Amino acid sequence: MSSDTTMLETERPRRKNMRAEEREKAIVSEAIRFFAEVGSEGQTRELAKRMGISHAVIYRHFDSKEALIERVYEQVYLSRWNPDWGPLVLDRSRSLEARLTQFYKEYAERVFHYDWVRIFVSSGLKSYDLTRRYLALVREKIIIPAALELRHDLGRDPVAGPPDEAELELFWGLHGSIFYIAIRKFVYEVPVTIDIDVAVENTVRTFFTGIGNGPTREPCPTNSPI
User: Fold this and answer.
1) Domain count, the chain
2) pTM over 0.85
């Protein structure tokens, strides 16, 4: 055996001795990077090749590619969702503008990452329903409550029924305008140099100025000249 071969075997992780749980975590970790790079259409055979394991090893831990993608969803999306965000939107001790400003600052910190954004976008273009399910969570916990809170702030009847599509679209527009910063950076790979907190403050402030909710707002400090 050559010295080069001996060195290579010494440096290579001893995967065959990994416990099942450790191997499963390693597969998920590499799958996150893999699907972020190539999209959810990437083949598990190529993933196995990248990991230096046999294709069959993946299917000892996951019944199907869909099961692996489901685990990726849990790790990348559900684990980063803060359950305190729902109550935050409903906290009337602060203005709705202040609440949403805090939410979107925290949200951007959690989700403005290469793997999160690229998997989110690619799964939305394929048959996997990760994007649809995640947006349903956003709709239930953030968009609908925010629309009802805006009704309250504007003095409209809060028991008039669920928000209509026009009310919801206002907040989807706000959500999309902030998330588009991440799209530009991680999908279009356009340099984004603005401070994200400042961008959030400006965007949320502009939103509330546009709907004429000035009397109920509290100042949102920023170092931006805007």
Assistant:
1) 2
2) no
Asked which of 13, 47, 76 is the last residue of a domain, the reply is 76
In a shared domain, residues 62 and 158: no
What would the mean pLDDT of 109-113 be, rounded to a whole number? 96
Final residue of a structural domain among 22, 45, 76: 76
Do 182 and 161 reside in the same domain of the chain?
A: yes
Residues 106, 29 within the same domain: no
Phi, psi of 19 (to 5 degrees): -70, 160
pLDDT in tens, 131-165: 899 999 999 999 999 999 999 999 886 567 899 99
- pLDDT tens column, 163-173: 999 999 999 99
Please tell me the distance from the alpha carbon of residue 212 to that of residue 197, in angstroms, as a whole number: 23
pLDDT in tens, 72-107: 999 999 999 999 999 999 999 999 999 999 999 999
Residue 220 domain-assigned (yes or no):
no
Q: Is residue 225 part of a domain?
A: no
